[in-house]
Description:
Blueprint: E1 2-4, E2 9-11, H1 19-25, E3 32-33, H2 38-41, H3 45-60, E4 65-70, H4 73-83, H5 101-108, H6 123-126, E5 138-141, H7 145-156, H8 177-186, H9 188-197
Parallel strand pairs: 2-4, 4-5
Antiparallel strand pairs: 1-2, 1-3
Helix pairs in contact: 5-8, 8-9
Amino acid sequence: MLVFWEQNLVLLAVPKxxxxxxxxxxxxxxxxxxxxxxxxxxxxxxxxQRFLHPYFKQAGGKTMETAAVIRHPxxxxxxxxxxxxxxxxxxxxxxxxxxSFDEFVLEYAKTEDRKPFAQVGSQYQFxxxxxxxxxxxxxxxxxxxxxxxxFLKRRLDTxxxxxxxxxxxxxxxxxxxxxxxxxxxxRPEEFTTWETAGLSSDEE
Length: 204
């Protein structure tokens, strides 16, 4: 999570959307940077709304705006699968070694009792508020980096160069048509939220 106090902006760190690179590239511009522990670094909007928003409002007498990036659901799951495929997780319950990408996605699509390797959270839930609506002020698609970076350049009034960080292992992954259809049937809100991010306005 990155806080830009003078610019009245909080950048929430959705997992597997390049948040580590953002933190590295924007380090010199931030007022406050939350990097650890992970559950604070990746605090979802509803947690920010409950705990940090009241504190910031009391401290500065203003309502901070928020921004976040979300990824196409299949691509996001692909990143999680590759991340958990790494060598240091082999033999652990959350490792994806020996499991196909189709199996991983089908397990994620379950509504309950998912196996540890498929417990990766939800982008839909991350950006929601306590009323189960999109609470993030400015929502961007990961795939449209130019739009997101243009927003940051305008808002922070600075040029931005992002380093490459935390790259997952390269794997040749493809999702079968049938499994993607099941994912869309079981988790339509994940796709709708991503599509909404592509339509939301970031004009100031």
